[in-house]
Design goal:
Keywords: Acetylation, Cytoplasm, GTPase activation, Membrane, Phosphoprotein, Transmembrane, Transmembrane helix. With 628 residues, the chain is an alpha+beta fold. The protein is 48% helix and 10% strand. It contains 29 helices and ten strands.
Length: 628
């Protein structure tokens, strides 16, 4: 592509800017009106200038928002600071997706070597072709044969590539294999890639060996396989220091504000500890010699589960729940007796309204059953001839068929050959892929559905409860990973607020991407606790009693409990990832919830401010608008 007709490029190709180092940077590409849309509102769009520049022989990318006006809100200013890119080495970019829709704006999505993604950059004046043409002059870029929107960007001699090739992204080159053949080929599908042996990626590392051992350690020997690809996002060995600082950067003024918030929070921690820590509490500490005993914060002790008599006391004569907040508080602090879960979970998941009557709920169940059967018939009626011409259906069905046979098979409800419940699990997931065709099916969804079906023992009601849960958690499975990116970023801010020494340690050891918590967040601790424990934990999370993002405070609580060991042993990213995975089955669930409750209470509004609106598992922003 001849760039001589591009006025922006021609004007900037010989320009120079001072980026603040000893050598003046030479700008090779510059484009105005490159815009991010942090929320759905037009007023929140942030326009800026995207540049490529050469400095010290390396290519860097920057995006700087335009100067803010007096009318800019604090929330928009936060996004401006959050997404400013001052000096991103292009060598730290894993791949870029480029979209040039027939109608609408051109935009790109930049995904880093860590797997984290920036929000889409929209080019209001065009220019994506010129951007890629300029990059090709300075770095190696290869386009996917299977996915024309995907461009792999990196130096293939980079030692990180051996680890990155294990990500096995759809349509991304298997680098180690390609190099051995002196050519570049692309994996046809995730399923083919994940069944290759370790030799395909140049031999197993210590982390891969550990992952193999972990599968045999758990109760169900096949349960980890359903997330094999997604969990490999956690296997990236390092996250470039400069990239990390640009992702999590706040300006100097916000750092001062952050220090004020931390001082306020630490004052509250001292007060709270004086109120909560007693002789009885300290006895619990002896259960874990590895925990951080000195700086642990305690919440209220766990109560007993909601009983049948207590449940009936919450209902009026027509079956309405008279005090939903009191009910959620009771569940938060004690859980639900198993015999009641079938009823209570429908409210916690949003399938039933708290003020609905028993008659209304029975009518709703009948109507929803008919609707479910209608949706299910859409894929049930697809003939073999149609299926041959319906690639998306075949792919989703194949992925679901493989996942359901290795989901919680050690649980009696799903164990054994020819188990009817496994078939129902598959049918619900296939039906959901037609109900929400845009999201479809992603690995990990079966892990969320399995406990729901186990409790409901009804296909239609399980489907609608699962669909309600996906309204909150669907962002975990978005293709651009923005949902996971937002949660890990919020987790970083919470640790910085609630445990600055630990956050500083992670910063010094290139662990600020928090990818060692990826599995915790993605499937909400499903791998860390037993089946019975996860039902208790999830109903606590679903109450959204203290926070709709209580799972993030739970992450902080667990990290805080083991801070002394993490810092004392000088864990780097690889060691930390192994250590976190080895905590599976070792975490005291009551202590963890108790600690998280105290941290959430102490953080207060400062903690809530760390979490951007729309961050999973909150309802999407558009649903908030519908409710209003």
């Amino acid at each position: 592509h001849d760039l001589s007709d591009d006025s922006d490029y021609a004007a900037s190709s010989h320009a120079a800017i001072d980026i603040g180092s000893e050598e003046t940077a030479r700008v090779v590409y510059e484009k105005e009106r490159v815009t991010i849309h942090p929320t759905q509102y037009g007023s929140s769009r942030i326009s800026g200038k995207l540049r490529l520049y050469l400095q010290l022989g390396a290519l860097f990318l920057s995006w700087e928002p335009n100067e803010s006006t007096s009318s800019v809100t604090a929330e928009i200013e936060k996004y401006r600071n959050l997404y400013t890119i001052q000096a991103l080495p292009v060598s730290d970019i894993r791949f870029i997706r480029r979209y040039n829709p027939t109608f609408g704006l051109e935009y790109i999505i930049i995904v880093l070597s860590s797997g984290l993604a920036f929000p889409p950059f929209y080019f209001y004046n065009g220019g994506t072709r010129e951007l890629f043409a300029t990059m090709k002059q300075h770095v190696f870029i290869i386009r996917s044969d299977d996915d024309p929107t995907l461009f792999l960007v990196n130096d293939f001699e980079d030692p990180l590539q051996k680890s990155l090739s294990s990500l096995e992204l759809p349509g991304v080159a298997t680098v180690a294999n390609a190099m051995s053949q002196n050519s570049f080929s692309f994996a046809g599908s995730v399923n083919e890639a994940r069944h290759g042996d370790d030799a395909k990626h140049g031999g197993p590392s210590s982390i891969y060996e550990y992952g193999s051992k972990q599968k045999h350690k758990l109760n169900d020997p096949g349960r980890d396989l359903s997330l094999q690809v997604l969990e490999k996002f956690s296997l990236v060995t390092k996250f470039a220091r400069d990239t990390t600082s640009s992702l999590f950067r706040e300006n100097s003024g916000s750092h001062a504000y952050g220090r004020q918030k931390q001082e306020h929070v630490w004052d509250r921690i001292s007060d709270y500890k004086d109120q909560q820590i007693t002789q009885d509490d300290t006895s619990v500490l002896s259960d874990s010699t590895e925990s951080d005993e000195l700086l642990l914060v305690w919440g209220k002790k766990r109560g007993s589960p909601l009983t049948v008599d207590e449940w009936r006391a919450f209902l009026d004569p027509e079956g309405r729940i008279m005090d939903s907040k009191a009910l959620r508080k009771k569940v938060f602090y004690g859980g639900v007796d198993h015999v009641l879960r079938k009823e209570v979970w429908k409210f916690l998941l949003g399938y039933h309204e708290y003020d609905s009557t028993q008659a209304e709920r029975e009518y709703l169940a009948a109507m929803k059953r008919e609707e479910y059967e209608a949706i299910k018939s859409q894929w049930k009626s697809i003939s073999a001839t149609q299926a041959k011409r319906f690639t998306k259906f075949r792919e989703r069905k194949g992925l679901i068929d493989k996942d359901v046979v290795r989901t919680d098979r050690a649980v009696p409800f799903y164990e054994g050959d020819d188990n009817r419940n496994v078939v129902v699990l598959r049918d619900i997931l296939l039906t959901y892929s037609f109900y929400n065709f845009d999201l479809g099916y992603c690995q990990g969804m079966s892990d969320f559905l399995a406990p729901i079906l186990h409790v409901m023992e009804d296909e239609s009601e399980s489907f609608w409860c699962f669909a309600s849960l996906m309204e909150r958690l669907g962002g975990n499975f978005n293709r651009d990973q923005n949902g996971m990116h937002a949660q890990l970023l919020a987790l970083s801010k919470l640790v910085e607020l609630l445990d600055p020494p630990l956050h500083n340690y992670f910063r010094q050891n290139d662990c600020l991407n928090y990818f060692f918590c990826f599995r915790w967040v993605l499937i909400q601790f499903k791998r860390e606790f037993s089946f019975d424990q996860i039902m208790l934990l999830w109903e606590v999370l679903w109450t959204q009693y203290l926070s709709e993002h209580f799972h993030l405070y739970l992450c902080v609580a667990i990290l805080k409990r083991y801070r002394q060991r993490i810092i004392g042993e000088g864990m780097d990213f690889d060691t930390l990832l192994k250590f976190i995975n080895e905590l599976s089955g070792q975490i005291n669930i009551d202590q963890a919830i108790q600690d998280a409750e105290a941290l959430c209470t102490i953080a207060g509004d400062n903690g809530a401010a760390c979490i951007p609106p729309g961050t999973p598992p909150s309802l999407p922003v558009e649903l908030y608008l519908q409710e209003d």
